[in-house]
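pipeline/complex-builder :: batch 7 item 3
reading input block
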Amino acid sequence: MTVVLRSRRQKLTVAAVSAGALLLAGCGAGGPASAGGKVSGDKIVLGVITDESGVYADLAGKGSVVAANMAVADFKKKYGDQAVSSDIEVIDADHQDNPDTASSLAQQFYGERGADAIFDVPTSSAMLAVAQIAGQQHKIFMDTGGGSTDVSNDNCNKYTFHYGYDTYMLASGTASAITQSGGKSWYITYPNYDFGQSMNTNFTKAIKANGGTVVGTGPSPFPNASEDYSSILLAAKQKSPQVLGAMQAGGDLVSLIKQYNTFKLKDAGIQLAIGLLFISDVNALGADALAGDEFTDFWYWNYDDQNRAWADRWQKQMGNDKRPTSDQAAVYSAVTQYLEAAQRAGTDDSDAVVKQLEGHKFNDMFARNGEIRSQDHVLLHDVYLAQVKSESQMSEPWDYEKIVKTISGPDAFQPLSENTCHMS
Amino acid sequence: MTNLLQQVFNGLVAGSFYALLALGLAVIFGMLKVVNFAHGVVYMLGAFGAYLLLTQGGVPFWVALPVVPLLLWGVGMVVERLLVRRLVSLDPIYNLLLTYGLALVVQGVFRVLFGVSSQPYAAPKSLRGTLDLGLFKYPAYPVFVFGVSVLTCLVVWYLLAQTRVGVVVRAATERPELTRALGIDVARWITPVFGFGVGLAGFAGVLAAPTRSVNPVMGSTVIIIVFAAVVIGGMGSIFGSVVAAYAIGIIQQLGNVYVPLLSQALVFIVMALVLLVRPAGLFGREEAAL
């Protein structure tokens, strides 16, 4: 008797568990949950796909994951029991700067791991791959790491947001400011791949728009095995421009600047303008190697008390003596704004959250006068023209930047009249 | 014309690093038939050695320049004794895998310790000026690098050509079986020669620190070009590797200026052409290549 009962109970248990599992699976994998419904899988999963081992690991990497977790903790603290979901998880993976890896990670995150949104993704080629998956799967992607304007133009889609910086804004900030202040003739050197080519195009446009000329360009191989830029520097010197615009990033930029200093181009009256500079690069070269150079930054840890307080918390969580980069701060803000939008929508349904994000105006630790433009999903916000301090001007470690001027979002980012995005 | 000459000189400077690395690689390959995949990592260790000595102990460039390579020479000998030696009798693929594995481990450890960003390292004050080379003016530091590289290659050539050790090494490199058959104890020289090749890579690394980005992956792309130099020059030909290294430097720099689209592929196009015409490389002997 007892044996039969037990077996019946077992059968019931098995049946119940199976049904539950089926229901769960249905929720998790069944695409967007019905609008106005609750949270899929009773859980919000946020994926950070980033470079955890390559050239961009210091400017994004683990620091981005920490930033995402900080945003989740702050959100939970703010809403407590009222939060749209009490269960919010951050998962992360290393895309090794490889578009194929990024693409399969995105599929895995959105699919079997149930991610509602993906963040960061440095390296433009990898970023574009993730944006494509996001568009296909109707899941949200907030790109803070990849700079190419392609993602908000020809390759835009309803579920992808470009959050923080892009090549247009870097060009309009730096190129306009320097051309207007007298640096009329430019020589541009750029790494010969998506990002560099996009930078070259946008810088050339901005220089010409401000009455300047580009007297020559020097594409450098990418990756540059010799790390030797002497031939390009020499070619630049012979054209005697007023400004050398360097679009290289990371380690390439560091080598180029070392050699710019060795070849004494500054003494020859050729000013250096850097396309994309992260504070981790300044730290790598030492302030004096760059002192006086101007560049566009989109967040600075020591800008005001609010930024600084956040930077202190980030530093504590990281357990090192570094300061966060603008990209890492952007990840914090993007995660926060995503969660706030889900809170307003009362669901993690992608379409409902997109509706809340579009046109949203806000101020937070990262974005001042922020507005998510509905037409192309670009975050407009204040950015800064910064100048690198010399060692003697620094009052503490990592105190590298002097903010020269603030550029408002609509002035810095691509105007809609030039935009080619058609959301399907 | 001056412009062209100056670009050629740029190439010789770029080639100076390749030459020192190729020299070490060729010496090691010649003696042990070991393709040292850790060579790029040793180059990185040289640069980091200089950086660490400066930041941790205040040791200047001029002291680091001899000290770091000597230390790495020692490290190389230990590695040869403990690891490489055990695999020499097996298929060469084993040592290739060993050195590749070592390279990944060391690179990984440095990544964890220092991150991937570059570390700052400035050129010594005395070499920050500009020199008048007659036809054109040129910064002092690259001229110094070129001079040191040529001098080192000449010294090594002298050691190989004029000393008994050199004769043994050359003989063992070019005709190993014959040398052994003549009753010469080749084995005795293997450990110091391996260490010497490693030390040369470290030397190139110290020279690179003031002018290249110092980071854990700095050796990983350079080494590919150096392998190309050794193949073009002829596996087993030390002289050929060095000449090819300088030539590659020139080809790359001229490529950057005149055919930027091809500059990355140029080296490998040259390599393919050379291998088509002379499968053993420019200065290699058929049987030595086998």
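note: Residues 2-29 of chain A form the longest helix (28 residues).
queue -> next item
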